[in-house]
């Protein structure tokens, strides 16, 4: 057959790479390192097209950088804890560990069948005690530094499943698994103090020039820094005061009521014994239940209830009625808002609904707002009115002046609030890393001594072992206190799986280290990750947590960097029939079928050629066929030209070549230039591949006669360039042809081709310029010059103008590539 035998070829090279380990690396201070990393997969069972795309992109970069001489680290592992393993265990009656490790074994084979150039000796699985024991140690070291704490919070609790649910697992107020009503429950949980790093996490975003701007913006908004005023409003007839946070101190004379979050701790005191008490309590209860029902980001309709109590605006001594409102968040600012309906839309709607006064205190230029006629809040700029001594000030100026005034009088202070919350890491599930803590009735919370780590998950070595939540496994939790030796109880929460993925990229630098989580020398050599590649769905949490962990590990002395990922590429989705490929849509293409039918190289080539990495990739069967046909064409082309590899190559000077040879030589070097440029600018492999296709076409178009006479070295260089340039994308294919053409080196160790600058210069020709038939000048012009440009240049030439003078040319005759005759 005239199709190349990809099955044999791919198996052969995969075996060689497994045996010879050309992708195994170690630290070498004499060489520049390059760390390329794709987000590691969850071992869900099989790889999908999204993986194929992600890993193909990473592999091209790894191979390209290797050919450029970098010491390239390119590792792979498994994000192996998490819920699906437990669900599968429930459904199929197998242990989560069995399910996970079986999947890993299967998916590892699938990745190997793609020919990805990983250093497999660095593989890690986060569910392995050899990994999570170090995570437990990091937890303890963070605890010691005050970066871990335990507090009571409200969680989503499913009574029938006896577990906390994540926000996404509450659907219409019910448990996604059993459909039971989900209720708020206060319980203890462990937290990482990510807010301690809020400022640094925000500031260092400026360093991340190699990240997509939209990801940086999403992180900035997530951290959500707000500057403003914290101000105390004394409660009437009471010693209490309510502290509010506002970003608009300039509007403080426009306050007409106060709104508290339903969870605000002062509410009880405010309403006790008042006639409003029952109504308020009912409102709070209703609101708490309603909160459970809301989808993430869904805004409830604004409701509130008057408490009967008043507080005093310290700026003007006015009485301000206190409301409880469902749109005030306890977790933000101080959980209390001074309401200014004239200048805040939420307050405006609330005021209209409950008939509260609207009092404008910021007047925009050329307009006069009146509370009775306003149709919406004015949130723009303006000058202060009805604001005592601040009247007449510009709003920006007034912000400062009012903060200063409050600070001076002692009832307020400048305040910065972050939207970012501390990271709750407690999960009540089985399949996660146990939190290494012991609760002792005498000593309280006691850390597990470091030399007793790991606290292993029970039952993982036994396929029939229990995988019930740890709080149901007495053998696990009953223990003795490391402090007093008395009976004690182990912590039964496990860690959020995002903890594992927050530092795995660092662990790859010493995956077998059994002395410490990290080796600062090794980490120092390899980190930061130069190029990270993954889905944009991780734009916030995973990337933020990894940045946080990097700073923590730096402060614990393990790392000497501030940021983990210098460059980030967020690849687009793989879509089919206009929708993301997913099981639920039934439009999944299984990469294994493709690899079976077309081979790994064709599959890789298709995924790289169909779209630039950051764009969505639309699946189409013709595209795969096209990729396959192209590779077969190159295969035949090289095989029909084997003789050019038999002679010793000669030195080439472009000026010595005849026209056909010169054209191919130029094209070869232009292609090298274009491919390199396309990769360097945002990894646009699709245009890189197009360039190689053009070069291939130019060779294929040679007539039999031209082909027979073409300069052997020029042809050889062209074909070698094709193999080198395509190698990162279709490695088995190129490795095989490289060998078939008599090379004994591995292409990985071959340098990336460089281009001959002489060849990139545009070809120039000499044109004779006549005036009325007499030769007056000779011009050096690009060979491809347009006729109009040539005429202009001829007319503009001084030597020519001497003879044409002011006379208007009657006629200009152009003989292509030779002559211009101007008749005057
Ligand atoms: C008075 C005011 C007047 C406000 C005005 C805005 C406009 P950002 O910018 O997002 O930080 N706020 C404060 N704490 C809140 C909470 N716990 N729940 C809901 N809203 C809260 O928003 C800050 C503004 O959001 C604050 O400034 C406060 O309303 C409100 F013309 O105070 B403002
Ligand atoms: Zn004790």
From TrEMBL:
One of its GO terms (biological process) is leucyl-tRNA aminoacylation. ATP binds at residue 583. It is an enzyme of class 6 (ligase). A motif ('HIGH' region) lies at residues 41-51. Residues 661-786 form the Methionyl/Valyl/Leucyl/Isoleucyl-tRNA synthetase anticodon-binding domain. Residues 220-406 form the Leucyl-tRNA synthetase editing domain. InterPro entries: aa-tRNA-synth_I_CS, aa-tRNA-synth_Ia, Leu-tRNA-ligase, Leu_tRNA-synth_edit, M/V/L/I-tRNA-synth_anticd-bd, Methionyl/Leucyl_tRNA_Synth, Rossmann-like_a/b/a_fold, tRNAsynth_Ia_anticodon-bd. GO terms for molecular function: aminoacyl-tRNA deacylase activity; ATP binding; leucine-tRNA ligase activity. This is Leucine--tRNA ligase. It comes from Desulfolithobacter dissulfuricans. It catalyses: tRNA(Leu) + L-leucine + ATP = L-leucyl-tRNA(Leu) + AMP + diphosphate. Residues 420-619 form the Aminoacyl-tRNA synthetase class Ia domain. It is found in: Cytoplasm. The keyword Aminoacyl-tRNA synthetase applies. Gene3D superfamilies: 3.10.20.590, HUPs, Isoleucyl-tRNA Synthetase, Domain 1. Its EC number is 6.1.1.4. One of its GO terms (cellular component) is cytosol. Transmembrane segments: none annotated. Keywords: Aminoacyl-tRNA synthetase, ATP-binding, Cytoplasm, Ligase, Nucleotide-binding, Protein biosynthesis. Belongs to the class-I aminoacyl-tRNA synthetase family. Signal peptide: none annotated. It comes from the Bacteria. Residues 36-179 form the Methionyl/Leucyl tRNA synthetase domain. The keyword Iron does not apply. The gene is leuS. CDD domains: Anticodon_Ia_Leu_BEm (cd07958), LeuRS_core (cd00812). A motif ('KMSKS' region) lies at residues 580-584.
